[in-house]
Structures are given as C-alpha cells and as structure tokens.
Design brief:
10 helices, alpha/beta, 19% strand, 298 residues
Length: 298
C-alpha cells in the first residue's frame, strides 16, 4: 500500500476514537500536568499511579483520566501492563508523563498502522523541549554498542522506516498483538525487550517521522540525588538482564564481571578527585551489577 497521510486525508476524530493512552506516573505531578493539558478531545486516557506521594492521581482524575492506583511502585513495565490490560481500544498509545501529545500526530500514527498491517509497534518522531529532533530509534541494543558513539552524520528519515528499536517514551501498540513488557525490568531496557519480542514474532517496528511529539526526556519524576542513584542501579541491573535474555547467561555473567571492574575502578578515581556525583553513580551501578550476579533484583 502506498504511504499517504497528508493532513487533508486524515480524520483525526475517527483516529482518536481507536486509541487509548496509557501513562505511568510516579511523583510525576509537574510533568503530568503538561501532558494532561495537551490531550486532544475524544482520546481515552488511563493513568497508572505507582504509589505517588504527590498529587499525580488527583491531577489525572481532574483531567478526566481513568486512574488505577497501585499500592506500591511496581516499576514502569508492570505499570504499563496494568494499564494496557485495562484498556479497551484497537491501539494503545504508551506515553511518558513528560511527553506532549498532538491529535494530528496520533492520527498519522494510526494511518501508518493501517498502511503497514505487519507493524506491531509504531512510534512518532520525538523532539526535545527546544523543538530539536531526537534520535529515538536505532538498531538493536547489542548491535548498537558496536557503532560509533557519535553518529551525527546519519541522515534524518524522510518517510516511514523499519527499525530494530523504538524508544518507549511514546509508542503506539496494536492491541491485537498482545505484547506486554517483561516485568523483571523495573526500569530501563524494557522497551528494548518489547521491541525484541515483536521482532521475534516476525512483526515490524515502524518510525513515522511526520507524526511529531515533544518529550522532555528524564522529566517524568522530580530529580534528586537519590533518584539518580536509583536509576544508575537499575540501569546496571537491567543491562545485564537484557543481555542474558538475548545472548544467554554465560555472556551476561562475563559482561557483569567486566562491569564490576569498570564501576569499581571509576568509583575509586572519582573518590580520589572528589567528584561525588559520579562516585555515587558508580557505586550505585556497582550495586546493581552485584545484585544481578547474586540473582537478586536491583
């Protein structure tokens, strides 16, 4: 089917009626306020609250969202799964609280889903708060590590493309595929894993560049030193869990011991130079790595 999603050919209201937004909040009031304000009329919304201490659930309820309150912080993937299981729509739009939604962009995602029926997951082009485009798609994580860190020379896509990875900040899932996140991931790499699961089913992942959403990045919860350490610990653990899923336990354990030396050596250096923020991050990363080696969650 030829791709065509010109604005005059889009029926935005009809497209929105086929979509339910699922967002997971954890002390996300500041970010969530903006996301809720950006909601176009006619769009169903479920906010899963992971036991926030702020007024995230009250804000969502006041905006007309259906709120599911968890008794504890279950993590991003588990929260998304709860929301997706409760949704009754053809398409599920997973959106972080720090995204800003756009009705026309959602309609373009739905049009792309109709044009590419083999696509299980579709994603918009993400822009940061300045309006600059963000490379929110890529090759698979383990292949990605073999590429140069700076890839600014790569061209921006002019039309829809198939990717191996799409950022979990904003994803449109075809509900009939039944894809769910691996709940062993509390935070980080769960989007890598769900993309890998879609590919394993022989389904494609499609980036839709003319569907543009804004995403602040890292702003879903209020920043703090404790949160930074928490993220570093889970990043280290999830990295190894993902590698074990993709390459087996032996490869992951080999990587884990290399990361022990990596984090430990950097922690010593940052301690000597009194770079305390980096020291905390490496100690947290070391803790997550050791937890994985001991067979425990981060």
């Amino acid at each position: 089917m030829r791709w065509a999603a010109e604005p005059e050919r889009l029926n935005t209201a009809a497209a929105l009626a086929r979509v339910c937004v699922v967002s997971v909040a954890y002390n996300s009031a500041d970010a969530l306020r903006g996301m809720l304000a950006s909601l176009p009329p006619g769009l169903g919304v479920i906010v899963v609250d992971n036991a926030s201490a702020d007024d995230s659930p009250a804000l969502a309820e006041a905006a007309g969202a259906r709120v599911i309150r968890n008794g504890a912080n279950l993590g991003f993937g588990a929260g998304c799964n709860i929301g997706m299981n409760a949704a009754e729509a053809e398409f599920l739009l997973l959106a972080n609280p720090d995204t800003r939604l756009d009705g026309a962009a959602i309609a373009r995602l739905v049009a792309a889903a109709d044009a590419f029926p083999d696509a299980a997951i579709l994603a918009p082009m993400l822009c940061d708060e300045t309006g600059a485009r963000v490379r929110s798609w890529d090759v698979e994580q383990l292949h990605r590590r073999k590429l140069a860190r700076k890839r600014d020379a790569e061209p921006w896509p002019e039309g829809p493309l198939c990717a191996e990875f799409l950022s979990g900040a904003c994803l449109l899932l075809r509900a009939s595929e039944g894809l769910r996140f691996d709940e062993a991931f509390f935070l980080f790499y769960e989007d890598d894993a769900i993309c890998a699961a879609a590919r394993a089913k022989g389904r494609s992942l499609v980036l839709v560049p003319d569907a543009v959403m804004h995403h602040a990045g890292g702003g879903s919860s209020a920043p703090s030193k404790a949160l930074s350490a928490f993220k570093a610990r889970h990043m280290a653990w999830s990295r190894l869990h993902y590698m074990a899923l993709m390459q087996g336990d032996v490869a992951a354990r080999r990587e884990a011991w290399a990361r022990v030396w990596h984090h430990g050596g950097k922690a010593v250096g940052h301690g000597i130079t009194l770079r305390l923020d980096k020291l905390r991050a490496d100690v947290a990363g070391l803790g997550g790595t050791l937890a994985w080696l001991r067979g425990k969650h981060a």
